[in-house]
C-alpha cells in the first residue's frame, strides 16, 4: 500500500516524486486490488508450476555446478533492498566476473541457461518474491543498488510501487542483452542510454496506472515471449 507522504524516505520527498505520488494517492483502491491479485495469482501459480520448478531444478544441477537459484540484492518499493529469486542461468558467481548487466552471447551463460532465458523461464521463481510482497506482477524491473544510485529525482517515483516481473519497458527492451552486446562499456551505455529510455515507459505507466492497464501489460508480455 502507499505510505503517507511524510513517511517516505527523505530522499524521495521531492517535487518530482510528488507529482506521481498525487496520482497514486487517488487510486488507493486500485493499489489494494493490485496487491490482492498478486497474492492470489502468485499462490495459485506456484502450486500449479511446482512440477516445472522440480524439472528445471534438476536440469540446472545436471548442467553445471552451483545452486538452482540465483539470489541477488535488488531495490524495490521505497528503496528497500531484497534478494530476488531467479533460476540460475549463468556459471556460479557470474556476478563477480563482469558487468551486472547480461549481454548477448555472454560467455557466463550456461547451455541450459541459454535455453531457459530464451523463453523467460528463469523469471518464474520471482513468483515467490511477489507472494512475499517484494515484487508485483507489473512494475519497474528491480535494479541493483549500483544502478539505482544513477537515478534522477524523477526516477525515484518508480520506487513508490513494488518492483515488477514485467512492464511496458520490459516488453520494449526485451532484446536489451543484444543491444548491449555491441557496447564497449556496458555499464556506461546502460546508465546513459538504456536506463533513461526504460524509465520513460515506467514513469508513463504510473501516470496511467490502473488494474486494467496492468492486465493488458501482462497479456502483451506473454504475446511478446511467445512471438
Number of continuous helical runs: 10
Alpha-carbon distance between the termini?
34 Å
Mean pLDDT: 91
Question: What general outline do the C-alpha atoms trace?
Answer: globular
Structural class: mainly alpha
Number of strands: 4
Could you write a compact summary of the structure shown?
This protein is mainly alpha-helical and 227 residues long.
Please explain how this structure is put together.
This protein has 227 residues and is mainly alpha-helical. 50% of the residues lie in helices and 10% in strands. It has 10 helices and 4 strands; from the N terminus they run H-H-H-E-E-H-H-E-H-E-H-H-H-H. It has helices at 15-25, 28-48, 50-63, 111-118, 126-132, 145-148, 168-172, 176-180, 186-207, 211-226, and strands at residues 69-75, 81-87, 135-138, 163-166. The strands form 2 sheets. A two-stranded antiparallel sheet has the order 1-2. Helix 2 (28-48) crosses helix 5 (126-132). It is globular, with a radius of gyration of 17 Å. It starts with 14 loop residues before the first helix and ends with a helix.
Write the layout of secondary structure elements.
Elements: H1 15-25, H2 28-48, H3 50-63, E1 69-75, E2 81-87, H4 111-118, H5 126-132, E3 135-138, H6 145-148, E4 163-166, H7 168-172, H8 176-180, H9 186-207, H10 211-226
Parallel strand pairs: 3-4
Antiparallel strand pairs: 1-2
Helix pairs in contact: 2-5
Identify the notable features of this structure and list them briefly:
mainly alpha; two-stranded parallel ribbon; two-stranded antiparallel ribbon; 227 residues; single chain
Amino acid at each position: 500500500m502507499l505510505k503517507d507522504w511524510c513517511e517516505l524516505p527523505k530522499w524521495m520527498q521531492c517535487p518530482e516524486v510528488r507529482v506521481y505520488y498525487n496520482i497514486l494517492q487517488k487510486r488507493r483502491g486500485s493499489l489494494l486490488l493490485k496487491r490482492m491479485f498478486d497474492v492470489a495469482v502468485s499462490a495459485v501459480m506456484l502450486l500449479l508450476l511446482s512440477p516445472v520448478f522440480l524439472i528445471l531444478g534438476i536440469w540446472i544441477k545436471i548442467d553445471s555446478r552451483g545452486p538452482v537459484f540465483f539470489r541477488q540484492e535488488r531495490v524495490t518499493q521505497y528503496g528497500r533492498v531484497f534478494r530476488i529469486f531467479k533460476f540460475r542461468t549463468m556459471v556460479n558467481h557470474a556476478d563477480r566476473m563482469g558487468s551486472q548487466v547480461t549481454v548477448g552471447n555472454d560467455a557466463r551463460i550456461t547451455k541450459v541457461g541459454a535455453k531457459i532465458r530464451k523463453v523467460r523461464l528463469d523469471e518464474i521463481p520471482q513468483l515467490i518474491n511477489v507472494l512475499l510482497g517484494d515484487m508485483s506482477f507489473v512494475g519497474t524491473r528491480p535494479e541493483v543498488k549500483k544502478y539505482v544510485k544513477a537515478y534522477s529525482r524523477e526516477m525515484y517515483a518508480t520506487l513508490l510501487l513494488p518492483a515488477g516481473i514485467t512492464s511496458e519497458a520490459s516488453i520494449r527492451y526485451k532484446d536489451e542483452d543484444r543491444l548491449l552486446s555491441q557496447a564497449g562499456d556496458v555499464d556506461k551505455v546502460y546508465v546513459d542510454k538504456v536506463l533513461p529510455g526504460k524509465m520513460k515507459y515506467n514513469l508513463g505507466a504510473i501516470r496511467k496506472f490502473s488494474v486494467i492497464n496492468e492486465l493488458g501489460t501482462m497479456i502483451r508480455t506473454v504475446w511478446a515471449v511467445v512471438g
